[in-house]
Amino acid sequence: KMHSTEIGNEVADVPYQIISSLIEYEKEGCSIQAGLSAYESSLQPIGTFNWKWNNYYLSAKRNYEVVFTQTEDYHTKVNPFSTDALALGYKNKKIESEVELFHIQQEEKSSLGLKGKANINLSWLDVRHTTGIYNLGSDNSSPQPVDVFSHTSLIFSPNVWHWKKARFQPFIGLESTFVQHSGKMGIDPIKPEIIISMETVDPYSSFLVNMEYGLLVNQFKVSYRWVKFNMFGNTTNNSINPGSYSILPIHHLEIIWQFWN
Fold it and tell me: Which of 60, 66, 68, 239 is the S-S candidate for 49 at Cβ 3.0 to 4.6 Å?
């Protein structure tokens, strides 16, 4: 993989190559992968463990990856990091849930977090929720710009009375996104590095609610959608730049038509 940056009239290319090799063993609901990842002179162990019993499952994994970040002088920095995660979940045709504890190690810095998801899929109701909690513990040496992230979407479509056999069904949908910023790092899209370290910014939050209603047909949806359907003032702002503006309310007609392959 290669990242190119133009500075003045010159183009700087920053390449990297990571090589991973795994062997796998699988038997009766249990699978194990073990191997190594190599980047430059670093050699890191990686692997996964998956175990399933009826509708329950347990998994553990270790990954080694590399990402590009941009510095304040527009140069590109290559950052290798490893991720250790342990997940426990439950899944059937109507309900799915999972909790994952993860630890990220980057050079001498580390951070701990927790993620969770819960989905309900019924003939008349579809609910999907995802939550992430970051910067857990007091020994985090690599704080993340976000402390808490939560996203929830809901679609209610009655599947009773004459709607049960009708060719279309009315629906109402809600979507909410909540972000609690840590105040330790800020997001500024105007700056070249985008995510910058902060020492004087207090923790702040951002809350966005969208709403829509319309009709559902097989492979077809027509709806009227409100973006920022909430009454929380100018709290929908994810940038620390004083020149940025809060997300403005938007109303529009939305039509989605899905084609078969």
Answer: 60
Burial class (CB in 10 A: 0-12, 13-18, 19+), 138: exposed
One digit per residue, the tens of pLDDT, for the chain of length 261 reads 666 666 667 776 667 678 888 999 998 889 999 999 988 878 889 999 999 999 999 999 999 888 777 666 666 777 788 899 999 999 999 999 999 999 988 877 788 899 999 999 988 889 999 999 988 875 656 677 788 999 999 999 887 777 777 778 889 999 998 888 777 766 665 565 556 666 656 667 788 888 999 988 877 888 998 887 665 555 555 555 555 666 777 888 988 886 655
Distance CA 200, CA 222 (A): 46
Identify any residues that bridge with 171 across adjacent strands, giving them in sequence order: 214
The per-type count for the chain, helices as H runs and strands as E runs, is 0, 17
Residue indicated by tokens 């951070």? 111
Task: For residues 14 and 110, give the distance between their C-alpha atoms in angstroms, rounded to a whole number.
Answer: 25
Q: Could you tell me which of 69, 64, 66 has the C-alpha nearest to residue 80? A: 66
φ/ψ of residue 128, rounded to 5:
-135, 125
Between the alpha carbon of residue 30 and those of residues 6, 61, 185, 187, the distances in Å are 49, 14, 41, 42
